[in-house]
Request: fold
Amino acid sequence: MPSFDVSFPPPLGARPDEELIDVTFGDGRTERMGLHDYDRVFAVPGLYEEVVQHRLDCRSPERIAALLATAALGLGWPPGDVRVLDVGAGNGVSGAALAAAGLRPVVGIDILPAARAAVARDRPGLYALYLAADLLALDAEAEAAIRALAPNALTLVGAVGSDHLPAEALAAALDLVCDEALLAYTFPRATEGETEIGAVLALLEKRRRGGALKVLAREPYRHRLTTDGRERWWVAVVARVSRRPPR
Reply:
């Protein structure tokens, strides 16, 4: 049982980054946090899972893992041979779902040191390598370490939303996977005015039209509930990507 209780005060607005949680600890102390205040949320063991996965019924990690495993099998790739670069890996919930589906989350990367600390605390050994780094500012050592693990799949479970991931960072991540790889990502069905989502989707559409990306699966699904009981609907996509020129 968690050593805290959670309640949901009225959100500041309709955006995900305006949702709030009140956390009451065993000593009677109560702290109000933003749902996206990841430094503080990740610092409390089990809080993210209790709020996002359990109370708000987030389905994205399992949905992406299942779609990616199915797509891999459809191509004749054994799931155990799918080596995943998990971008925006957070505290490892996404990586745990990938592993449960028989895939191999070999690299996790998140810009927040608090995310890496949470993985080391709660899920040690889940990833062969976990980096707290900016994809647009990787040093040569980090890049070499990622390439050495030869990821042939890239996942973005919740990273395309709330202006988390610039299109340039996605391009950098795609450059780190094998020449033939799978890409699995989710994004809000309604963009809610978020500028980066349009840029990311435009980048992927350009690659699709150029023959470097082929969509294998695409489906809408309920991402999670909001703190005030509404539903957030997202879209999950799995595609095959290639750096080889189309024939």
About this structure: The chain has two domains: 4-55, 60-242. DSSP finds eight helices and ten strands in the chain.
